[in-house]
Design brief:
about 725 residues, 4 domains, 6-stranded antiparallel beta sheet, 5-stranded antiparallel beta sheet, 20 helices
């Protein structure tokens, strides 16, 4: 019958073994075990090994006694923190083995005394109560150096030697044969030179012997409701969740009903976020209740999902006009915006986690909720209807751009629940904000930070935008904050130094490229070409591609202050555009790379670096393709800028090209060059149509003044800095 007895042991995962196994800390025997036969239970909190039975309601000491929420807040029962079974017996047992320890070398004796001292500190007086354990100042997942890891391993060996001679701690009958064999090998091996595998260096933890807790000095955003319960910032997260539930109640987001037969209730999840200021300080703790919309079925739970947002080019164009006309800026944010959208479909949701509901009823949604597939569309329809109702006009070029004409013009760019206001009068701004407060709950800030873009108004009324804070977080996120800066984002040739090659399996290639793309789209045209190159290898990156990405990060490290400046002077006020092409620049496909950049107020408002879709057989063909793509962007930019400036006059926008043959093709039919141009698709002659309608005029520019040159090929530092400065994209 012994074969049917329980042989499993409970422990804590502290790392990974180099031999395809796990490193488990046994808190009962004070031993480090290596095993491959491990079953993980992620539900209990760290140091709690009992099953969580049923939730027990508690009252938060910091909660407002008069607060009124939809549900009663409950959390899982707080278990006792780890306490050594009998510390007096431990000390007696350790004392009885002083002679055996003293007979070892002086180094072993010192290590054993250190181990005893650590265990002696785990007295019952030193162990915190269950109620205060969550507020302990120990933090989680604190990285340690390799020297500290060696010290921990050496101390482990001494503790193992002590415990092996303790009959009250050794119970081989409860161990499997494989684990006994593994422990035998572990005690015989020389572990003094062991080092953690390099690929798992980020997972190394510090073990706190007195509480089996893992510490981290930095504030972490919890990913689950259970992590919130163990967070030292529990009071802040509790307040954020209560605010979310109260907001849901005020908006009458749902009603409690019985689940109809044949319908399935969708579950929800808490999302926790720490919002920071531009300087990195904490702004507020935010908890968002999100429904798991991936469970929705099209045609039953939703129909249409598309919802527009303001394009970044629109936002930059608005800022350039604000610099030209000296408009004041203001930013507003709609709190719990999606809750204002009205649903047309019947959707049922399970009660939120942590808030009690014992009658078996479910939530029938009356308004949209974060996570629903149609939630953005419902919200956009609601706010658009309200803005039009108070006297605004919607742009045809960008449905999220609005204007109210009158004595003092007011412009609004809307990005989901964030809005940027530009107005010639502060009274007009306050009037609009009051109109918004009548319908929505909003918060306002001065126009210095919008969508991660920092906006600085200088003394000469010019406006500079940059993403310095975002770039710093990006470097820190991927461990490149202490890297050596590079002078260019990409090397001119394909030769990469061997020190730049790394193991691609350890590098989050997609995440880095995605983060760099947001930086490039916002305020950094100088990295557009380099990001375009590395974006072509998302599915199968090589070590060379990883080296290119790391070089971009090093370049960002050295150019954190880079941004775009829009000047208020009358010089170079109007819209102008440059287009260029690098014929056959892609050696793999033979395709050319198009580059385009548009400026207003002497600063870049739109740019593009894109590999062409077809192979051009000549540089003229590549240039005319790039010019047609630039012409399309110019037509759209003119439409939204005329809307914002109330410009009724039809102005001709210059398009600068450095290829004379392409300029001739833009003005005249290619009769004299029929043999060389007859194969070019008609769509690439769109630029000629724009010239005939006098929307643009194609002009010649010297190659040294071709601003789009850095968007088509790698350049050396002096040339890159020169062109970026001319485009207003520098410090």
């Amino acid at each position: 019958m012994e074969n049917h007895h329980k042989k499993a042991q409970k422990g804590i995962l502290i790392g990974y073994d180099s031999d395809n196994g796990y490193r488990i800390w046994d808190s009962n025997s004070f031993k480090l075990i290596r095993s491959r036969d491990v079953t993980f239970n992620e539900n209990p909190l760290l140091g709690h090994f009992e099953e969580i039975d049923e939730p027990v309601a508690i009252q938060n000491k910091t909660a407002d006694k008069n607060s009124n929420t939809l549900f009663d807040f409950v959390i899982p029962r707080q278990h006792e923190c780890y306490t050594p079974a009998d510390t007096s017996n431990i000390q007696q047992t350790l004392t009885s083995h002083d002679e055996s320890i003293a007979s070892s070398s002086q180094q072993d004796e010192h290590a054993a005394e250190s181990s005893c001292a650590e265990i002696e500190t785990a007295s019952e007086d030193d162990v915190p109560e269950a109620e205060t354990f969550l507020e302990a100042e120990e933090s989680f997942y604190e990285p340690i150096s390799e020297e500290e890891v060696s010290d921990v391993i050496e101390t482990d060996r001494q503790v193992n030697d002590i415990n092996e001679s303790r009959p009250d701690r050794r119970d081989d009958s409860s161990l499997s044969a494989s684990e006994i064999e593994a422990e035998g090998r572990m005690t015989l091996r020389d572990r003094s030179n062991l080092r953690p595998p390099a690929r798992y260096i980020d997972f190394i933890c510090n073990i706190c012997m007195n509480g089996n807790s893992i510490s981290d000095e930095n504030r972490k955003e919890p990913s689950t409701f259970q992590e919130v319960m163990a967070s030292k910032d529990f009071d802040e997260w509790k307040k954020a969740m209560d605010n979310e539930i109260n907001s849901l109640k005020e908006n009458e987001t749902w009603e409690m009903v019985d689940l109809p037969k044949g319908r399935k209730a969708i579950s929800s999840k808490w999302i926790f976020k720490i919002k920071t200021n531009p300087d990195g300080s904490i702004d507020k703790y935010k908890a968002r209740l999100v429904i798991r919309g991936f469970s929705q079925k099209k045609g039953l739970d939703y129909y249409e999902t598309f919802s527009p947002v303001a394009k970044t080019s629109t936002i930059r164009a608005l800022l350039s006009i604000a610099a030209q006309e000296n408009l004041s800026l203001c930013q507003f944010d709609v709190s719990t915006a999606f809750l204002y959208g009205k649903l047309k479909e019947d959707i049922y949701m399970k009660p939120p986690e942590g808030y009690s509901n014992n009658d078996g009823k479910v939530c029938k949604l009356k308004r949209s909720l974060y996570g629903l597939k149609q939630a953005p569309r419902c919200w956009n329809s609601t706010i658009t209807e309200h803005i039009l109702k108070v006297g605004f006009i919607q742009s045809e070029g960008d449905p999220c751009l609005f204007k109210r004409e009158g004595k003092n013009k007011l412009l609004i760019a809307l990005y989901v629940d964030d809005g940027l206001i530009a107005s010639a009068s502060s009274k007009e701004t306050e009037k609009f904000l009051d109109e918004m407060r009548q319908r929505f709950k909003i918060t306002t800030k001065c126009g210095s930070y919008f969508l991660g873009i920092e906006i600085e108004r200088k003394v000469d009324r010019s406006i500079k935008i940059d993403q310095k804070s975002y770039a710093k977080k990006l470097l820190q996120r991927f461990g490149m904050q202490n890297c050596k800066a590079a002078v260019t984002p990409i090397v001119k040739d394909n030769v990469l130094a061997s020190k730049d090659i790394t193991d691609i399996h350890d590098f989050p290639y997609r995440q880095v490229v995605g983060a760099l793309s947001y930086l490039m789209v916002g305020t950094r045209p100088d990295i557009a070409f380099a990001v375009g190159i590395v974006s072509r290898k998302l599915d199968n990156p090589t070590s060379e591609d990883v080296a290119r990405v790391k070089r971009i990060l090093r370049y960002v490290k050295g150019t954190l202050e880079y941004g775009i400046t829009y000047k208020s002077s009358t010089v170079e006020r109007g819209l102008r555009c440059y287009s260029d092409a690098d014929h056959g620049g892609d050696e793999t496909t033979g395709r050319s790379t198009s580059g385009m950049i548009c400026l207003n107020a002497n600063g870049a408002i739109a740019w593009q670096s894109k590999r062409q879709t077809t192979v051009a057989i000549s540089s003229t063909e590549a240039e005319i393709i790039a010019a047609s793509e630039a012409a399309r962007e110019v037509i759209w930019l003119k439409r939204i800028m005329n809307f914002m400036q109330s410009n009724t006059q039809k102005e001709i926008t210059p398009l600068f090209i450095d290829n004379e043959s392409a300029i001739r093709l833009a003005y005249d039919p290619p009769y004299e060059a029929h043999q060389r141009t007859k194969h070019i698709r008609l769509k690439h002659f769109f630029v000629r149509q724009c010239v005939l309608e006098k929307d643009i005029k194609v002009e010649k520019v010297d190659t040294k003044n071709q601003l789009a040159d850095f968007l088509t090929k790698p350049l050396f530092k002096p040339r890159l800095l020169e062109l970026c400065k001319l485009a207003g994209a520098s410090t």
